[in-house]
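In the previous chapter we treated chains in isolation. Here, by contrast, the input contains two separate entities that must be folded as one system, with a combined length of 742 residues.
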Amino acid sequence: MRIKVQHRTTYLYDAPPSSIVQILRLTPRNYEGLQVRSWRIFLDHDANLVPGEDAFGNIIHTLSLNRALDDLTIGVEGEVETTDTGGVVKGAVERFPPGLYLRDTPLTHADDAIKAMAHDVIGAKEGLDGLHALLSTLHETLTFDGTRTDVKATAAEAWAAKGGVCQDYAHIFIAAARSMGIPARYVGGYMLRTDMQQQNAGHAWTEAYVPSLGWVGFDPANCISPTEAHIRVAMGLDYLGAAPVRGSQSGGAAEQLQVSVTVGQSRRQQQN
Amino acid sequence: MAFNEMLGSDGGVRAPYAGVSRWLESVNLDQLDRRRAEAELFYRRGGITFAVYGDTQGEERIIPFDIIPRILAGKEWNVLAKGLEQRVKALNLYLADIYSKQESLRAGIVPEELVWQNPAFRPEVTGVAVPHGVYVHIAGVDVVRIDENDFYVLEDNARTPSGVSYMLGGREICYRLMADLYGAHNIAPIDHYPDELFSTLCSVAPQRAGESPNVVILTPGQFNSAYYEHSFLADKMGVELVEGRDLFIRDDHVYMRTTEGPKRVDVIYRRVDDDFLDPLVFRPDSMLGVPGLFNCYAKGNVALANAIGTGAADDKAIYSHMPEIVKFFLGEEPILKNVPTWCCRKPDDLAYVLEHLSELVVKEVHGSGGYGMLVGPQADKAAIADFKNRLKANPANYIAQPTLALSSCPSFVEKGIAPRHVDLRPFVLTGANGVKIVPGGLTRVAMREGSLVVNSSQGGGTKDTWVIDL
């Protein structure tokens, strides 16, 4: 399936910062489930944008700017061709063995409540069975509700709040899987939705390691395995490792952030 | 019975202590007491204090200085120095390996989970080349002596070891206050340490920095317990002491704000932990680091000493594998001994430790400063019961070792002159041109009778350490 993505992030500064440094993880890489047809990142001001790669194999851009601006927009426009792989991730860049993805991070730390849930739900079930049971439990227990958590929420906080957004679902899934010795990781990207083209955020899901299959995707917020509607952009141990933008500014005052994401299926004539 | 470094095992004065022994017989306690008071004044005037974590008073304390020096014969030191050099070479090779080819993992030298799941392992620097393959530019290896010939390594401190300012301060006091004893010995100098440190740091600068690289010390600030040392070393090396907010990034290079405008920085001797170095890569809430620093580092535009991720080599679980690490990377037998270590993450080891708590020393895998440890033979029943619970709740967080009979040295305490247990932290420098160690190091002394805990945060003191030609 051909999918077009437009993603705009606009920062409005009440008082302009004297400098800005950001790391962008906004560029997908090819794997069996996805071929990049075209992709570009653009800025509405003249700034330094240096491409690179992080240790996990994600494509990064470092944005730096040393003069004051009232606003800054980071734009992404691209088109990809996706195929449904039944959730199995093949041909992706792998820099570390699965064992690395058992690491504990503050955002994915399993507290006693998550450990108990994981133990109950996964128990002795092996491979996909345990992970599917976890997917269902999260779907039944959690309410998709952006008011219950914020972007800094940990898995434990979101589990206690019994809800959150896709990021929280992913963190809880990862924490639970790792606590049962299953390597798991965070994936950031986009999703084509039939109900709405205009979205106010990207999407996030997870991948867990099943020895017989390799890495397999799980989308806890939608209670499905990723399909051809999922556009995999970046991967890490948690949100911080796959965040579309990690930034810092010196000076200046509180900013307003506006994000718009448009994900739509390409029309035939646009492909020519 | 612990080895007495002055009296040896047969009660006769050992040769290195002949001068000290004669001198101790000739001075009276009042004279010693006056000198101790002067030494304390020296520390107070110099502002050489340290803050104790978890101390609700929050006040700065002076580390007690024991004016009676500890003596090592040149011969003894040479063996120790060879062992230290070997150990630190192995640490550097191990780090270079786990952050690149991971051959030691494939060879089974270290269990994989001790790397992949080690909180101090930094996956982010995998594949990042460091200048000359040096990760640990400054190591503070803690060694103890248990008899005439045997030195054991207790800990390899490869992150941001502190204490060198006390080593240098102690020597200055001895030089000023102990002229009689000082003059009677041929003591190997240590006051060139800041020069050696500076040339070590310069040696790993990016090539384009040329003949005189710009070196700075990055401190977390004046509330850090080792702030005195940061400012002391900056002063001695003649380099700038900076905080994160004094630095900024432009075009993947690091700059320092100065009154004459931005000045490019080539080498950062950072005394800020990995977690706080760059909020874009590590802890996002850190205010102590420099946003974007990691990227400059990864591109080789600035050197960090120590490198990022060195903690993966010095925790107490990796420690137990150091003899194999030395053999694997250097093909040599380790010169310094390792204390037998039970890793409580292994069920069999845990069972043994729980059975023998009253004989063992238990430490946290990532602990330091003598915090959160149990010295079994000196602990009461309540403390042992408490540790049993902690061990059962989180076994992987602990290791245990036999209680070593640390050697003792004559020390000036309340009651007069009496033996007290000591350890030694030599500072091992590694740069592009190899390893340098100034002779001796910081001797830490447990001032309480019978105590084996020498950490300054636990009431330990320090001594000057003399390496002498007999």
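The domain at 340-402 of chain B is CATH 3.30.1490.270 (Dna Ligase; domain 1). Chain B touches chain A at residues 112-113, 116-117, 119, 123-128, 245, 248-252, 279-281, 284, 291-292, 295, 298 (CB under 8 Å). Compare these points with the single-chain example from earlier in the chapter.
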